[in-house]
Design a protein that fits this description.
Structural class of chain A: alpha+beta
Largest sheet of chain C: 7 strands, mixed
Number of helices of chain C: 17
Number of helices of chain A: 9
Strand content of chain A: 25-35%
Largest interface: B-C, 58 and 50 residues
Number of strands of chain A: 14
Number of domains of chain C: 3
Order of helices and strands of chain A: EHEHEEEHHHHHEEHEEEEEEEH
Shape of chain C: globular
Radius of gyration of chain A: 18 Å
Strand content of chain C: 15-25%
Shape of chain A: globular
CATH superfamily of one domain in chain A: CO dehydrogenase flavoprotein, C-terminal domain
Oligomer: heterotrimer
Distance between the termini of chain C: 55 Å
Largest sheet of chain A: 5 strands, antiparallel
CATH class of the largest domain in chain C: Alpha Beta
CATH superfamily of the largest domain in chain C: Aldehyde oxidase/xanthine dehydrogenase, molybdopterin binding domain
CATH topology of one domain in chain A: Enolase-like, domain 1
Helix content of chain C: 25-40%
Radius of gyration of chain C: 25 Å
CATH architecture of one domain in chain A: 2-Layer Sandwich
Distance between the termini of chain A: 50 Å
Helix content of chain A: 25-40%
CATH architecture of the largest domain in chain C: 2-Layer Sandwich
Chains: A alpha+beta (251), B alpha+beta (154), C alpha+beta (691)
């Protein structure tokens, strides 16, 4: 399990990074924390000609209570848990193991877009805005719903980078709940749900049950089965989790 | 094309040329002959290759060597010497916290990071914090005991 | 491996010296493996001068093959010749300066396959049956005729793989001048590897040296001889270079050895008092594409069959055991082997019976436990010693306490279950037993040599091989006891066919049976001769099977929302005869229990309908992590075996066997469902509860 050969660039500014993406397009792949990409390289399932390491792009760093640069690691956010919406703080410990969170980034998680990932669910729940940029088309801002196209598929064009994610201010008195079921701690969830009650408005998402995280509504939600759980399990346990988080957040 | 890499490993400043695809784990093992960092899965799940990067526990198989440029890496070889083992290593010996010993360097790195974090470690919570390292021999109990013992000795 | 007194201190410094750590100037080998489950190999094109095909390698090395009563002998070539029979089977190999480059070359290999949609895997076994055996004892018809009740159930265990944290690996070096081949391999059976290599490569055994470096766990996986070992050794001789193959995890999951995919159909005859009269069993094992060396396709079905209802007195027993070929990775030994499935099926059946009869599960076990030792059982085993009522008695108080807790938990609406696992197992199978079963591929004897140095130091060498069990520590303890020498003066050598006396290696928990008996006899002779400097004593024993036993108690809580089961309490009462090294014995039990928990709750390799393996990473093949294993309490009861020098019996597998039963019963009790198929995943529990 050794990666195929690739070239490597480590830009030190955003324009430089965007220029590399612009020049190499589909042949190149941005490298954030690498916690999902490097295993794919090792299995030769991802075969970029060029890796663009974003580690030293200062424009992708930084965290305010309402926004995180794409290269912010989950561990950095955990250390600032008090400044985060509490539902994010509650979800962070479920993202892999702490060794993974030391490297794994918010942007990497969103751009990879595993349907069982916590960050896509949080982004949808909090109605986050994702700022993306390319050299040719400049900056644009997408809602979480617009950003997520399908499992492992985003609205990012080949020359485009996720710059940051931001969420609305967490108002005093807002309530929330987060719950997921995983076979073992740190595993991808078999099913998960999260809920906020902000200014009397309830919003809930269910994740890890179907191709993408989904906002709970009257129409139920889409489910898929795999090696770890059947669609029937995910439909029922997803429903139970939604009931649980909505009850908890309502209290 | 080879990349130039400057990295401090176990206190020693090094400069090497490496191919970009070389993982940190393979760099340590094959280029520096620091074979204490073991490879158990090469996809970031088993934790056998855990090392400290600027003091944080990370998977050396999920890091390219070039990503360690400008940073400091500590492996099991940098933790204790013959006759001068770390408190954690001594606790692993005293508690029988390994059988085959293949997972041990990874658990030591994880344990060191936990000890250095300053967080209070309890018997109830510690197993959750160790969930990123696999052991097939011990059933984990002696590893939990050893890390708790090392906490007490600090 | 030569273990000085401070060998453990090397391991905590990462200096154990595992196979991939060896500092040898070697070429790295990468195997080209089949993506098809069953296909004809039409053509292979390899990068020039850097690879060999199966046909080319077949000229350098012969196949592995096991024959015996009830078996179909099928050749297993070092690389597939003409056709492939499972996804992951190697069809070619390539070599390069390092593994990265070797994988690049493997990608360049062009192999044309013609998939075979149907038809037998082996011409030698057109019906797909690689093993078919039967045994019977007592008057089955009479016993079933007298029964007031007959229960019939079918239980299934999941396909698993041992998954030692260190995967397999081989380095081979050919010394052309001396005509000698040295092979370093991560194995539990160095002498078997040497014998198999000698036969495959047509070399004299004396021209082969097999060295075992530190081994990062074996658990039965490394008790086989594998095609890759033959291929790498043959390549070293062919190239006249040192070559190395270090298996990666994907290869290990797809193409090392799997285990345990068994279906156990049981018919149990009961009398009015709930006494077990007779068992009629059919055990079918999906053994995969080949008959593993040296144990063959009979390994699991026979082991399961022999162990069914082991601790219970029966009047009659009948078994049909089948090993069926399939387009999957070959199935071999994994800690507990078929005894796990036996204990699982038996103890689930006993709980089913208790429920049907309205009897307490512990009481039903007590009523049926064998009481007299030694004894011959209806299944044909010669039980050497035991105190089965004593084992169950130790569980009495904690069992009652857990039932009280359960009543309380149920009032609160929690899914809390209690399970018992009562079993015996065989350990230390010897040469005469193997020969009586017609098995010639396993030597069966064990050996130890003790040398007294001129400086009074003691060198111990055995035919065993350590994979983390801590042999050296146990041998030192024994040397101190028998000779009164300080542990620091004892050096232990294992796993080097040049330096050690021949023996069977380490499997079927034989260390405490054969090796320790040979070592004790040798030490005692050295003591009798007053530790004369220069003295050398070698002992060879042909061990007889002995029967460790145990009674385990588990409590499981199932999360009612997600139906994720968690073991919350575990007590293992073990009888492995006289305990020689308490710390090592308890470590074996605890580690074994953890693996049993994995077998019941987590570990499973599934294949798709079209033969593709679905678990090729550790995100798919789940093994227990620290939070999955509770603190395991271990108690000992000692029924000395009259058949070993120290009265000891094996202890390497008991934990796993007991846990397969106790944890399974606890889950079934928690959800109050008649569960039959492992593993008890949340999804499986969900469907069981949906009815």
């Amino acid at each position: 399990m050794k990666s195929a050969a690739f070239d490597y660039e480590r830009p030190t500014s955003l324009p430089e990074a965007l220029d590399l993406l612009d020049r190499h397009g589909e042949d190149c792949k941005p490298l954030a924390g690498g916690q999902s990409l490097v295993p794919l390289l090792a299995m030769r399932l991802a075969r970029p000609r060029l890796l663009v390491d974003l580690d030293r792009v200062p424009e992708l760093r930084g965290f305010t209570g309402q926004a995180a640069g794409a290269m912010t690691t989950n561990a950095q956010l955990e250390r600032r848990a008090g400044d985060l919406p509490p539902v994010i703080a509650a979800a962070l410990p479920h993202i892999g193991h702490f060794q993974i969170r030391n490297r794994g980034t918010v942007g990497g998680s969103l751009a990879h877009l595993d349907p069982a990932g916590e960050w896509p669910a949080l982004a949808l729940l909090l109605e986050a805005e994702l700022t993306v940029e390319s050299k040719r088309r400049g900056r644009r801002t997408l809602s979480a719903g617009e950003f997520m196209r399908g499992p492992l598929t985003t609205a990012l064009a080949a020359d485009e980078l996720l710059i940051s994610v931001s969420w609305p201010r967490w108002p005093a008195g807002a309530r929330w709940a987060f719950a997921e079921v995983a076979r073992r701690p740190g595993d991808f969830a078999l099913a998960g749900a999260a809920c906020t009650v902000i200014a009397g408005r309830t919003r809930a998402v269910v994740f890890a049950v179907g191709p993408l995280p989904q906002v709970a509504g009257d129409g139920g939600f889409e489910v898929t089965g795999d090696l770890h759980a059947s669609a029937a399990y995910r439909r029922e346990v997803g429903k139970r989790l939604l009931d649980r988080v909505m009850t908890q957040a309502a209290i | 094309m080879e990349q130039s890499l400057r990295v401090k490993v176990n206190g020693q400043d090094l400069r090497r040329e490496v191919p970009p695809r070389l993982t940190l784990a393979d760099f340590l093992r094959d280029r520096l002959r620091l074979t204490g960092t073991h490879l158990g899965c090469e996809h970031g799940v088993c934790g056998a290759c855990t090392v400290l990067l600027d003091g944080d526990a990370v998977r050396a198989c999920l890091l390219l060597a070039v990503q360690a440029d400008g940073r400091e890496v500590t492996t099991v070889e940098g933790m204790g010497e013959p006759g001068r083992l770390t408190p954690l290593q001594r606790a692993f010996l005293a508690r029988g916290a390994f059988q085959c010993g293949f997972c041990t360097p990874g658990f030591l790195a994880t344990g060191e990071a936990l000890l250095r974090s300053g967080r209070r470690l309890t018997r109830a919570e510690l197993p959750q914090l160790l969930a990123g390292n696999l052991c097939r021999c011990t059933g984990y109990g002696p590893i939990v005991d050893a890390i708790l013992e090392a906490t007490g000795s600090r | 491996m030569r273990a000085g007194f401070d060998s453990d201190a090397l391991l905590v410094r990462g200096q154990g010296g595992f196979l991939a750590d060896l500092d040898l100037d070697a070429l790295d080998v990468c195997f080209v493996r089949s993506p098809y489950p069953h296909a004809r190999v039409q053509s292979i094109s390899l990068p020039g001068g850097r690879g060999l095909t199966g046909t080319q390698l077949a000229r350098l090395a012969g196949p592995l093959q096991v024959d015996g009563p009830g078996l179909k002998a099928v050749p297993w070539w070092p690389l597939a010749v003409e056709k492939v029979r499972f996804v992951g089977e190697a069809v070619a190999l390539v070599w390069a300066e390092d593994r990265y480059l070797a994988e690049d070359l493997a990608e360049e290999a062009e192999v044309e396959y013609e998939p075979i949609p149907a038809g037998p895997l082996h011409d030698e076994a057109p019906d797909g049956v690689l093993y078919d055996g039967q045994r019977a004892g007592g008057d089955l018809d009479a016993a079933f005729g007298r029964a007031v009740r007959v229960l019939e159930r079918t239980f299934k265990t999941a396909r698993q793989t041992p998954l030692p944290l260190e995967a397999r690996g081989v380095v081979a070096h050919w010394d052309g001048a001396a005509g000698r081949l040295t092979v370093w391999t991560s194995t539990q059976v160095p002498n078997l590897v040497r014998t198999a290599l000698a036969s495959s490569l047509r070399l004299a055994e004396g021209d082969l040296r097999v060295i075992v470096p530190a081994v990062g766990g074996g658990f039965g996986l490394k008790a086989h001889v594998f095609p890759e070992e033959l291929a790498v050794a043959a390549l070293a001789r062919h190239l006249d270079r040192t070559v190395r193959w270090v298996e990666d995890r994907r290869e290990n999951l797809l193409a090392s050895a799997h285990a345990h995919e068994e279906t156990v159909r049981l018919r149990l005859a009961l009398d009015a008092q709930g006494r077990f009269l007779a068992v009629d069993a059919e055990v079918t094992c999906d053994v995969g594409a080949y008959s593993v060396f040296p144990f063959s396709a009979s390994l699991e079905p026979v082991t399961t069959g022999q162990t069914l209802f082991g601790p219970y007195a029966l009047e009659a027993f009948r078994l049909r055991a089948l090993g069926l070929a399939s387009s999957k990775c070959p199935a071999g030994a994994y800690r507990g082997v078929g005894m796990n499935a036996a204990a699982y099926a038996t103890e689930r059946m006993v709980d089913v019976a208790a429920r049907e009869l309205g009897l307490d599960p512990l009481e039903l076990r007590r009523r049926n436990a064998i009481r007299e030792f030694p004894t011959a059982t209806a299944a044909g085993r010669q039980l050497d010693s035991g105190d089965y009522l004593g084992l169950l008695g130790r569980l009495d108080a904690p069992y009652r306490e857990l039932r009280r807790q359960q009543a309380e938990a149920r009032r609160e609406g929690r899914l809390f279950g209690i399970g018992l696992g009562f079993f015996n197992e065989h350990s230390g199978t010897g040469a005469s037993e193997y020969r009586s079963r017609g098995i010639t591929t396993i030597p069966g004897f064990d050996s130890a040599r003790v040398r007294v140095g001129e400086d009074g130091s003691i060198e111990i060498a055995t035919g065993g091989a350590d994979a983390g069990q801590g042999h050296a520590q146990t041998y030192r303890l024994l040397a101190a006891r028998e000779l009164g020498v300080a542990a620091e003066k004892v050096v232990v050598i294992e796993g080097d066919t040049d330096a050690c006396p021949p023996g069977s290696g380490t499997f079927v928990s034989r260390g405490a049976v054969g090796c320790l008996t040979a070592l004790t006899e040798a030490l005692r002779e050295v003591a009798e001769k007053d530790l004369a400097p220069g003295l050398e004593v070698t002992k060879l024993v042909d061990p007889r099977q002995v029967f460790p036993s145990g009674a385990h108690l588990a409590a499981v809580e199932v999360d009612p929302l997600g139906l994720n089961p968690r073991v919350v309490r575990y007590l293992a009462v073990e009888d492995c005869g006289v305990v020689v090294n308490e710390r090592a014995a308890e470590a074996q039990v605890r580690g074994g229990v953890a693996m049993g928990i994995g077998g019941v709750l987590l570990e499973e390799i599934r294949y798709s309908e079209d033969g593709q393996p679905l678990a090729s990473t550790l995100l798919d093949y789940l093994v227990p992590l620290a939070p999955d294993v509770p603190e395991i309490e271990v108690e000992h009861l000692e029924s000395p075996s009259p058949l070993t020098a120290l009265g000891s019996k094996g202890v390497g597998e008991a934990g796993t066997i007991g846990a397969f039963a106790a944890v399974a019963n606890a889950v079934a009790d928690a959800v109050q469902a008649e569960l039959t198929d492992l593993p008890y995943s949340p999804d499986r529990l969900f469907h069981a509860l949906q009815g």
